[in-house]
Design goal:
Order of helices and strands: HHHHHH
Structural class: mainly alpha
CATH class: Mainly Alpha
CATH topology: Four Helix Bundle (Hemerythrin (Met), subunit A)
Shape: globular
Number of helices: 6
Largest sheet: none
Helix content: 40-55%
Number of strands: 0
Length: 187
């Protein structure tokens, strides 16, 4: 599901806006749309690295820097590559394998769900920053929502529920969540 999510979100983002537009803030984030793409590639790759190295108390060191002049197409390729790394690490992980994450030691399916959440919520952030509406597909958001946000009601529209759970949107009359986290622990 991680690879499919990356294929679908990067296909949506590819050609979405001219290169100059990607310096805009990504939705409500302080990052630009460019920086958010970089975060996505690093985050998803980092999850693969965590699951591969299995540290118990820290993140891994993966990249020293990124090329700030890289075009959007190269950044999108990085996300697809990162998703393939994570998908490979998830497939290779034994059911008993656990790795550290600040929001709960997790297993392969947990890290896969983290990668899906990163891809779909940051695609929403970027689309918002570029003035385009986008909601995560329910078939991608639903399993990730169920795995990482067990306290969030499973609604008819998991994509919208996931955006609310991560502070991206709010119901009419309600405030956006200022702070949130998922529960990556194995249940």
């Amino acid at each position: 599901m991680v690879t499919e999510t990356a294929e679908r979100t990067t296909a949506f983002l590819d050609g979405l806006a001219p290169a100059t537009a990607w310096s805009r803030p990504a939705g409500r984030l302080e990052w630009s749309c460019h920086a958010t793409l970089d975060h996505l590639a690093l985050g998803i790759t980092g999850y693969a690295g965590l699951l591969t190295a299995k540290p118990r108390d820290r993140y891994i060191t993966l990249f020293a820097s990124l090329d700030p002049q890289a075009p959007v197409s190269a950044r999108l390729e990085g996300i697809r590559v990162a998703a393939s790394f994570l998908a490979s690490a998830v497939r290779a992980a034994a059911p008993e394998d656990r790795a550290w994450h600040p929001w709960g030691h997790s297993d392969g399916p947990g890290f896969a769900a983290m990668g899906v959440v990163e891809a779909v919520v940051h695609t929403h952030d970027i689309a918002t920053g570029l003035g385009v509406g986008w909601t995560p597909p329910d078939e991608l958001a639903g399993p990730a929502l169920a795995r990482l946000f067990p306290g969030v009601p499973h609604e008819d529209e998991p994509g919208l529920a996931l955006l609310r759970a991560t502070g991206r949107i709010a119901r009419p009359g309600e405030r956006h969540l200022a702070e949130w986290s998922w529960d990556g622990t194995v249940r």
